[in-house]
Design goal:
Length: 174
């Protein structure tokens, strides 16, 4: 039986969940190859597995806490962004999902960040990826949601947020 402990330095990623996700990821990669689809390079597998596992853990924790997605007003799209960061490898990943006011899927994008220096910068990059996705679709009535208060403050151009928020704003918009 596998112990139910975390990896060192990665408190949100449990060993049992990671083993299960690794099995699924291997199956999924084999499935992609079988159907002549593109497959990520082997050196990105570890980070992908850990990012998927960490994000799944966040979703399960949010469900237990009663946190759920809320709809935007009619004819408005909602952009949800999130990021992961692994300090030991200075890498992360970001994801963005756009849904309409009825909760229907519109678009999504995920990006691997092989070189990133902090969780806060990963969150800022998530907002940048999401806003770029929305822009590429021609979305002009959109609200954004992130679990990073620093990114929200920077995106909102809150003048009282200070130097750090202005730095994030430069990352999001450049």
């Amino acid at each position: 039986m596998l112990p139910d402990n975390s990896f060192p330095g990665m408190k949100t990623v449990k060993l049992k969940e990671t083993v299960a996700m690794t099995c699924w990821y291997l199956w999924w990669t084999r499935h992609q190859r079988t159907h002549n689809e593109s497959v990520s390079p082997i050196h990105k597998c570890k980070l992908s597995i850990l990012a998927i596992t960490a994000n799944a853990g966040k979703v399960n924790k949010a469900r237990m806490m009663g946190v759920k997605w809320t709809r935007p007003e009619a004819r408005v799209l909602k952009l949800n962004v999130d990021a992961s960061f692994y300090a030991d490898s200075c890498a992360g990943s970001v994801g963005a999902v756009i849904r309409d006011y009825e909760g229907n899927f519109v678009a999504a994008k995920s990006v691997l960040l092989p070189h990133v220096h902090s969780a806060a910068l990963s969150e800022a990059r998530a907002m940048r990826v999401g806003m770029s996705l929305a822009s590429s679709l021609g979305c002009n009535r959109i609200i954004t949601e992130s679990d990073s208060i620093e990114t929200i403050e920077a995106y909102s151009a809150n003048r009282d947020a200070g130097l750090r928020a202005r730095q994030f704003s430069q990352i999001v918009w450049t």
